[in-house]
Design a protein that fits this description.
Largest sheet: none
Distance between the termini: 17 Å
Number of helices: 1
Shape: flat
Radius of gyration: 9 Å
Oligomer: single chain
Order of helices and strands: H
Helix content: 40-55%
Strand content: under 5%
């Protein structure tokens, strides 16, 4: 079951930082 938590590795890079922002906007806990 999905609980809305996501762990992102490489969040300081270009793609990772945009992915983190998109996940936060979608309501996920990152």
């Amino acid at each position: 079951m999905i609980d809305g938590k996501v762990m992102v590795t490489g969040g300081a890079g270009y793609i990772g930082s945009h992915a983190v922002l998109a996940l936060l906007d979608a309501g996920y806990e990152v």
